[in-house]
Every structure is written in structure tokens, then in C-alpha cells.
From TrEMBL:
InterPro entries in alphabetical order: AKR, Aldo/ket_reductase_CS, NAD(P)_OxRdtase_dom_sf, NADP_OxRdtase_dom
Protein name, per record: Aldo-keto reductase family 1 member B7-like
Keyword hit for DNA-binding: no
This protein's encoding gene: LOC113204530
Domain NADP-dependent oxidoreductase: 65-344
Organism: Frankliniella occidentalis (Western flower thrips)
Length: 374
């Protein structure tokens, strides 16, 4: 997956942990008031939080824990969450054009940068080309829009959000028409436009999201700048082992979205008819959490991180944001890992089939053809 990197050195490390950071214990944190939380988080920054990084094939290092921001569009909620994340030591922020929150992220990042509380080179910001921008000419247009909203001169990683496309006019204020499918998608032409943005310095690294192995390999064979990252749904019930192995062999780092099983996506059951799994309440997970004096969420994140996979958990609650990055002072042993590995349900554990996006299942680049038979 790439060599681990360190953002800084601070204090001694436990000899039993392969990925570590130090900081206030969770028992203490749970008793803090909001004021003392902010103080403790500020102290964590002052002592220089040590978050492991994954080296990207195109150069640069990506923090292995980032803040996911999907489904957070309320101004105050996102600003509070992002402030809490930055105070807790997060330097990796994940967003997308289609999330409609880049302007809010830009507002907070601009404040931190102007006040000198963080340097631009210490931040890692990811955004994505939207599904309704899947034509070569759209790439500079949408990236420039994202940069303006984020108030940045460049993003650290620019991803193609989906392998399929809908027509630009099919998108209307957060909704995509069911008959909006655009069958003219050309990944190689889009990738060349992405490479031009990389060459111009507006995107330090390039990648894809929700692509399958065949689609990634097609780009790799023609690319002057190969994909540096794949972002996919990945959690305990959907561990994505075949494509993770493929990426490891080909020098592509992997980012897991919904690493906790997306417990906030209650709407999903209404669309798919699937029952949303409660990974945080599984007996095996709770047993391991008790063993290590950690939360079930921390165990789930640690399980993925120990596989060398980047995680971007989403939360708007400051205490959970702090807990989600506090996973480097313990290690899951072989029996823990085996027990959690055994809970993988493969494709049956997948939550997001994206069939609700503009008739995507009819698109020739729909990536999960096995789902069409279900």
C-alpha cells in the first residue's frame, strides 16, 4: 500500500503498536465538558499529533485517518465538526462537488490558515469530479469551481467520483433525474484532462472512486500519471479483499468510505429495502473493544487501518471525532484480526449500489455487474 510516513515526532511510542499516536485517554475524554474538550484538543495540536501516512505513487503522503464530510451541509454543524477535527489533529479532509459543502470547508480552512494555526503543506484535501461532469471539458471547469469554494490554489487529491455518467442537465440542486444517463463516457479522455490539471499543479495526485479492477487497469495501461488512490465503500461486512489486493500489487492506495457501516444513512433502507447493519453493536466487536478498553468504532477503524487502508469516518460530534483518530495506541492481535476478518460478507455486505443515481445500472460502465443479477 506504500510506505508509512510520520507527520512529526512527539514523545515515546508503545512497543506493541505498529501505528501509533499519543493523547488523552478515552475514559478521561468522556468526562470532559465541551470547554475542556476544546482545551485538550488544542493541547494535542500543540504537542504535534503523530498520524501515520501512506505514501502515494505520484509523490506526497496521505494521512491514514481523515474526516469524511458526506451528508453534512448544515453550516454550523460542519464548521463545528471541522474545527473539532483540526483541533484534534486531523489534517486530511475529504469532500466532493456533489456534497455541496466545499464552500463551508473553505471558510474554516481559510480561517485556520490566515490565523497561522495550520500550514497549507500540512493539509491534505480531497475532492471529486461529479457524476454530471464526466466529459473532458468539464474537468477544469469543475476543479476550478471546487478550488474557488475551498479557497485553495490546489487540492492534494482529485478523484473521478463515479465510473458512470449522467448528463449535466440531469442534475438539479442535489437531485439527479432518473433518465439522465449519459452513455458516452470515455474514461481515458477524462483521465487525460485530469492529467493536465495535475501537470498545471492544481491537483497534486489523481485517483478514482467506485471503479472496478477492469476500469482501473484500463486507465493504468494508458496513463502518463497512474491512479494514486482508489476510494471505495469498505467496512467490516464488505472488506473488499480482491480489489484491495489488486491495488496493493499495482501501487494504488485505498481509502475506505463508510468504514463504520454508515450508521447515519437511515434513508438507505427506504431506497434499497436493505436493513442497515449495526456494526457498532456486534458482539465480537464489543468483546474486542472491551479487551482493549476502546470503543467499538475505534476497533472497526483500527481493523481497517491495520490492513494499510486509509479511513475517512464521518461524524459531527466533537467527542466522536476525537475518538475516531485516537486509534494508534493499541494493536489488534492476530486472533482479533481473524475474528473480524471472518465477518466479511463479500458483495452481500455492500450497502451502496448507486442504482438510484440517474439509472446508473443501465450504463455500460456500471462497476458492479454482479449486483445486476440480484
Amino acid at each position: 500500500m506504500g510506505r508509512p510516513g510520520r507527520s512529526c515526532q512527539r514523545g515515546p511510542h508503545s512497543p506493541t503498536a505498529s501505528l501509533q499516536r499519543t493523547g488523552p485517554g478515552l475514559d478521561t475524554m468522556s468526562a470532559f465538558t465541551h470547554v475542556s474538550f476544546v482545551l485538550a484538543a488544542a493541547l494535542a495540536v500543540a504537542t504535534c499529533l503523530d498520524v501515520p501516512k501512506v505514501h502515494l505513487s505520484s509523490g506526497g503522503d496521505m494521512p491514514i485517518v481523515g474526516l469524511g464530510t458526506w451528508q453534512v451541509t448544515n453550516d454550523q454543524e460542519l464548521e463545528t465538526a471541522l474545527d473539532a477535527a483540526l483541533q484534534s489533529g486531523y489534517r486530511h479532509i475529504d469532500t466532493a462537488t456533489i456534497y455541496r459543502n466545499e464552500h463551508l470547508i473553505g471558510k474554516v480552512l481559510s480561517k485556520w490558515l490566515k490565523e497561522g494555526k495550520v500550514k497549507r503543506e500540512d493539509l491534505f484535501v480531497t475532492t471529486k469530479l461529479p457524476v454530471y461532469g464526466m466529459r473532458p471539458a468539464d474537468v477544469p471547469d469543475f476543479l476550478n469551481q471546487s478550488l474557488a469554494k475551498l479557497q485553495l490554489d490546489y487540492v492534494d487529491l482529485y478523484l473521478i467520483h463515479m465510473p458512470f455518467a449522467v448528463k449535466r442537465e440531469a442534475y438539479d440542486n442535489g437531485k439527479i433525474n432518473e433518465d439522465g444517463t449519459d452513455l458516452s463516457t470515455d474514461h481515458l479522455a477524462i483521465w487525460k484532462a485530469m492529467e493536465a490539471e495535475h501537470k498545471a499543479g492544481r491537483a497534486k495526485a489523481l485517483g478514482v472512486s467506485n471503479f472496478n479492477e477492469t476500469q482501473i487497469e484500463r486507465i493504468m495501461k494508458q496513463a502518463a500519471v497512474p491512479p494514486a488512490n482508489l476510494q471505495i465503500e469498505l467496512h467490516l461486512y464488505h472488506q473488499q479483499r480482491p480489489i484491495v489486493d489488486f491495488c496493493k500489487k499495482n501501487g494504488v492506495s485505498v481509502t475506505a468510505y463508510s468504514p463504520l457501516g454508515s450508521p447515519g444513512s437511515k434513508w438507505l433502507a427506504l431506497i434499497t429495502g436493505k436493513e442497515l447493519p449495526d456494526l457498532l453493536s456486534l458482539a465480537d466487536v464489543n468483546e474486542i473493544a472491551t479487551k482493549h478498553n476502546k470503543t467499538s468504532a475505534q476497533v472497526l477503524l483500527r481493523h481497517t487501518v491495520q490492513r494499510g487502508i486509509i479511513v475517512i469516518p464521518k461524524s459531527s460530534k466533537p467527542n466522536r471525532i476525537q475518538q475516531n483518530i485516537d486509534i494508534f495506541d493499541f494493536t489488534l492481535d492476530d486472533s482479533d484480526m481473524a475474528k473480524l476478518d471472518a465477518l466479511d460478507k463479500g458483495l452481500d455486505g455492500k450497502l451502496f449500489d448507486m442504482k438510484h443515481i440517474g439509472g446508473s445500472e443501465k450504463h455500460p460502465e456500471y462497476p458492479w455487474t454482479a449486483l445486476l443479477k440480484k
